[in-house]
Amino acid sequence: MLLVAIIINFMITAGLYPELFNHMDLRMVQGHETCGPMQYVFYLIGQFYQGGIQLFDRYDLLNTSFAQLSVGLYTPINFLIALGYVLLVPFVKNPAQFFHHWYIFAYYGFGLTLRTFGVYILAFYMTKSRWVAIMTSIIVNCFCAITLIHMGGLCISEVYNYLPLLLFCLVYYWETRSFKAIMASILVFILAANNGLYVGFGYFYQTLHLFLFDMLMIWIIFQRGRKPLLADRFKWSTVGKVFAATALVLLPVWWWSHNVISDFEMFGSGLGDSQGRFHRIYNPVAMMQDPLRYFVSSADVFRHAYDFTSSAWYISGAFLGITTMVLVFIGLVLARHSYKFVFITAAIMMAFLNVPSNQGHWGWMMWAHWIDTVTNPFCFLVRSFHYSVLLWYLTLAIPLCLGLQACLAIIKKDFQNIYAARINLLKGALLGVIGACFFITDPQIKSYAIKILVLFLLFFVLFDHEKWSISLRGRLAGVLFLLIFGIEFMILNTYINTPSENMNPAYWDGLRVKPRVHSYMYTSPTPMVLDYQNPRILPVRYFYRTDKHVVFPLVCEFQGIFGQFYQYMPLALRLERPSSIYVPRLKVFQNIDQDHQIQEYIKRDGRVMYTADAAIAPNHGYYDVILASGLDRRVVQVEGAHLDHLRNFQDLKLPKMAPPNFIQHDYVFTLISSQAHQKNEGMEYQWALPRDFPRYLSTSLFTQDVFLWQLSIGSKPLLPAQGDLVSPMTFDVNNVRDGYLTALMPNGIGNTEEKIELHVWTSPDLLDVWRNTQDQFGFTYHADKDGWWVMHMPFDPKWELTIDGKKTPISKINRYFIGAPVSQGNHQILLKYWPHSPLRLLIILSTLTSILIMWVVFRRTYQWSQE
Question: Is the pTM above the cut of 0.70?
Answer without folding.
Answer: yes
